[in-house]
Write a structure and sequence with these properties.
Its main location: membrane. There is one protein chain. By secondary structure, this protein is mostly beta strands. Helices cover 10% and strands 47% of the residues. The longest helix is centred in the first third of the chain and has 18 residues.
């Protein structure tokens, strides 16, 4: 019997192949009759292609196939292929830039548009926006055009200065899944642990992807773990790479802040060409830039006191030191410095953005297989980044940290980074009868190495180096996917069936630094008693960032397998129902099953009601399970003690009753309305509620009160392990996030050009439950387990409201882009030392003016933060004695940035 079935399948496949048609055609603008390059052409439950620079395309299809033609700025159009057709011409009507766009994410039916999707999806035309907007990396670009997305550069925060944490819908960096061309992107190896937003999380480095390589970005604003797996609690960001051919684009950008720092020089290039005669292509991108550091410290408030003829030290004013008294003190200080042959710059702090050198390359490749039934594809890239950040300044009065023979006036350590990011995805799409198969392998690696300069190991005194290799970490992820999809026309008004399997292997590694970077050479052991002392009292390890020790180092791995089913049933042409389920099993914490139900109801033509309910999860990262960073100190009893971050399977964790990590779980509910009252206006409104249970956070330091006083009961538990303080990752809290997204798009002809207007907003609120998941042995330690400071980082450190108004006019030779972004209030909690401070909402204005010098050359000039708006100044108690004048909240603390950009575009855009 099985041989008969096999023979029938082969005959059916041959019959289908014999009936297929080599269809060619042209796509043009219905108003101008000009060809449109880069139009996406998708076959319902089949392969796809795109038009070339001349608006031409070729594709092999069966009679009766339904093709969808879509391009940003035009209304999507369907076309049914009839028998014996070999040549067609499609005329697209100009339309909305949002609701008509066909999307890949959120649906495995490849003919779903933003308007007809059952879940909210934003489509951001990065290809065109990045030519005129002032933002020069992907995190900042998304922050200014997508209200549900927020990212801020951090300062004085070790590795977090070099890889920016980002948020979607007010949730953490590790609760958003990033895809490229629909395939899972690896995270970084960096675990944020310096008290910034995203503390204790691991995110994806979006800035490792060159903007020049991106066609568009789709942001799915809905829980999607049942469809895509771990991390998709807040939503999914899907980056679609360019595949245009016959075009060579170059960009050269220069800029500086109003204060004259943060200088930028950036070069972008993108080139695409055809491969063969059957629609094959390769698209290559290069991005290189240097960004200078910025400094927004309040150095005018630093005061130098002359302690004696041979000694002096560095100190700060009291809160009342201002006005005439402060000016008089400053004059006296300068007089003392002059007598000593010094100047104030010898004592300055540096607080601001890190300096960055960044090089990106990316490729996107597609090769149709012989016979037109499938294609081979590949994409990936390499990113190298060199960063220089700044630690806290070591003062001459801090004798235990000083080597006076090297830095008599104190020093500010530099935290250097060497970051390499590599990725490669390869795969085959193939038509097996009525099924579309996709087999792929996606490999990604991120490596982060630290070097600390302009610093010392004080325990070595005059023998100390001033630079150290402090070690680093790396993360590797390999994902294999096998997916099948089929569209059944005979079930109701149509049924799309998708199912598949995934295998993912991950590895996390910590590398130790050179011995001088972490060792304290001042410890002495008494041979008689065995006790250890540090008679010099000097600190060990590289100041600012002691290196990873051999005890921290190790290689850790895990794997998981998943199977899923994702189905969409059109009960009628007006009513769509979706159901998805996914089972995953991890080698390190077990299994999980998640599901999703969604529906879209077309009330009238152009008015759609949509809603979804889903469960989700996020597996604890290998970083959270295995990261340890421990410094050795001397206890009061003469024994060595360890203080720092310990793993959850360590004896220290077991002594305190800290359980092993398990997955976060979530429930996501959304309800929305998408409508297009007229052809050039679209409106969408979506409300959501996301409940996350067993959310993982990094605790405070057990063994001490929040104010640094020893806790005898905890210290007693830690004593057998020679530890005096310990932090852990724990499934400590449950949170609820509620919010509303609003997006309004309008486009119209204006004179000889076109004006596109987008008004969008996100309003969200995250609240942690008052009841913690506290181990019994730690009763009374609530403010250490989950401190008010950590609560603030999760609930209110990001703006709860953000509203974007973007106006873009494109004329024959002249273009204007005007953007106003309102960043709502943000709050920082300085617990236990500083006050709670709320920073008032601010409006940031961007303006760009473009002029086409000649057909292939455009000049753009403008500004980010044109009006030089800063966040409120920090309260004195949170500002480190007045040094940190601004906090990196809302839009950052650099003020106005001015830029000039030349864009050379050879071929059709």
């Amino acid at each position: 019997m099985k041989y008969i079935l096999t023979l029938c399948c082969l005959l059916s496949a041959l019959l289908l192949q014999a009936q297929s048609i080599d269809l060619r055609g042209t796509v043009a603008d219905a108003n101008t009759n000009q060809p449109i390059p880069g139009v996406n052409i998708t076959v319902r439950n089949g392969t796809g292609t795109a038009t070339d620079a001349n608006g031409r395309f070729g594709i092999r299809v069966n009679p009766g196939a339904v093709l969808t033609f879509s391009s940003v700025g035009f209304q999507a159009q369907e076309y049914t292929v009839t028998a014996r057709q070999t040549e067609i011409r499609i005329m697209l009507q100009p339309g909305n830039t949002d609701l008509d766009a066909v999307v890949v994410v959120g649906s495995r039916s490849n003919s779903r548009t933003v308007l007809t999707s059952a879940v909210p999806v934003d489509v951001l035309p990065v290809k065109t926006l990045q030519r005129t907007l002032p933002q020069n990396d992907l995190n900042q670009l998304l922050t200014y055009i997508a209200p549900s997305f927020q990212s801020n550069r951090q300062t004085s925060s070790d590795g977090t200065e070099h890889i920016d944490p980002a948020s979607l819908r007010g949730l953490g960096p590790d609760q958003t899944l990033v895809l490229i061309n629909g395939k899972r992107r690896h995270t970084t190896s960096l675990l944020n642990n310096q008290g910034t937003f995203g503390n204790g999380t691991v995110g994806t480095d979006l800035n490792a992807i060159p903007t020049a390589a991106i066609e568009r970005i789709e942001i799915l604003r809905d829980g999607a773990s049942a469809q895509y797996g771990s991390d998709a609690i807040a939503g999914v960001i899907n980056i679609i790479l360019k595949k245009n051919t016959g075009q060579f684009e170059q960009q050269l950008t220069g800029g500086t802040t109003k204060q004259g720092d943060g200088q930028l020089l950036k070069y972008n290039a993108n080139y695409g060409t055809n491969l063969g005669r059957n629609g094959g292509f390769i698209n290559l991108s290069l991005e290189a830039y240097g960004r200078g550091s910025t400094n927004r410290t309040q150095n005018n408030d630093l005061i130098i006191f002359d302690q004696s003829a041979n000694d002096y030290y560095f100190a700060y004013p009291f809160a009342g030191d201002n006005g005439a008294d402060a000016a008089k003190s400053r004059a006296l200080d300068d007089q003392v410095l002059k007598q000593k042959g010094l100047n104030r710059d010898d004592f300055n702090f540096h607080v601001g953005d890190a300096g960055i050198r960044n090089v990106n390359t990316f490729l996107n490749l597609g090769l149709p297989l012989k016979g037109g039934k499938g294609e081979f594809y590949a994409f990936g890239g390499y990113n190298y980044r060199r960063g220089t950040g700044y630690g806290f300044r070591r003062l001459p009065s801090s004798a235990s940290q000083m080597v006076y023979s090297i830095f008599p006036n104190g020093f500010q350590p530099n935290t250097g980074s060497d970051i390499q990011d590599r990725s490669l995805a390869v795969g085959f799409r193939y038509k097996l009868g009525e099924w579309q198969m996709d087999l792929s392998n996606t490999l990604g690696n991120n490596r982060f190495d630290f070097d600390i300069t302009n610093t010392v190991n004080a325990s070595l005194q005059a023998k100390s180096p001033t630079s150290f290799q402090a070690g680093g970490h790396a993360f590797t992820q390999n994902t294999v996917n096998l997916d099948f999809a089929r569209y059944l026309t005979g079930v109701a008004s149509g049924l799309n069936v998708a199912l598949g399997a995934e295998f993912r292997a991950e590895q996390y590694r910590i590398r130790a630094g050179q011995e001088e970077s972490w060792r304290n050479y001042g410890f002495v052991t008494d041979p008689a008693s065995g006790t250890v002392s540090n008679p010099s009292g000097l600190a060990g390890g590289a100041q600012s960032f002691p290196g990873f020790t051999p005890a921290n180092a190790g290689t850790f791995g895990r794997s998981n397998v998943a199977i899923y089913s994702d189905n969409e049933l059109e009960i009628t042409k007006k009513w769509l129902v979706e159901a998805a389920g996914r089972f995953e099993n991890y080698t390190d914490f077990g299994s999980t099953f998640n599901y999703k139900l969604a529906s879209r109801l077309t009330l009238t033509d152009g008015i759609n009601l949509r809603g979804a309910f889903s469960t989700g999860f996020r597996a604890p990262s290998l970083h959270q399970q295995h990261f340890s960073y421990v410094s050795t100190t001397l206890l009061t009893n003469g024994l060595l003690g360890n203080s720092g971050i310990f793993t959850n399977d360590s004896p220290v964790a077991q002594a305190l009753g800290i359980p092993k990590l398990k997955q976060e779980t979530s429930q996501n509910i959304s309800l929305g309305l998408a409508l297009r009252p007229v052809s050039n206006l679209s409106i969408s409104v979506d409300a959501y509620r996301i409940r996350v249970e067993n959310r993982i956070v990094l605790t405070g330091l057990f063994g001490f009160t929040p104010f640094g006083e020893p806790v005898a009961a905890i210290q007693k538990l830690l004593l057998p392990f020679q530890a005096d303080g310990a932090r852990f990752f724990a499934n400590a809290i449950n949170t609820t996030t509620q919010g509303l997204d609003v997006v309004v798009n309008h486009s119209t002809n204006l004179g000889s050009g076109r004006l596109t207007t987008t008004l969008s907003g996100n309003f969200n609120r995250t609240k942690a439950d008052d009841q913690f998941n506290l181990p019994t042995r730690l009763a009374g330690q609530e403010d250490v387990f989950f401190s008010p400071n950590e609560r603030g980082l999760i609930e209110v450190v990001n703006p709860r409201q953000k509203i974007n108004l973007l106006l873009n006019f494109t004329g024959t030779k002249f273009g204007v882009t005007l953007a106003n972004v309102y960043f709502g209030e943000a709050t920082r909690n300085g617990f236990p030392y500083g006050p709670v401070q709320t920073f008032s909402g601010k409006v940031v204005t961007d303006l760009s003016l473009s002029y086409t010098l000649r057909p292939a050359l455009t000049l753009t000039a403008g500004a980010n933060n044109l009006l030089n708006v800063y966040p409120d100044q920090q309260a004195y108690g949170n500002s480190y004695f007045g040094v940190f004048k601004y906090a990196p909240v809302q839009m950052g603390m650099n003020g106005a940035f001015y830029f000039v950009r030349l864009v050379s575009l050879l071929g059709k855009s």
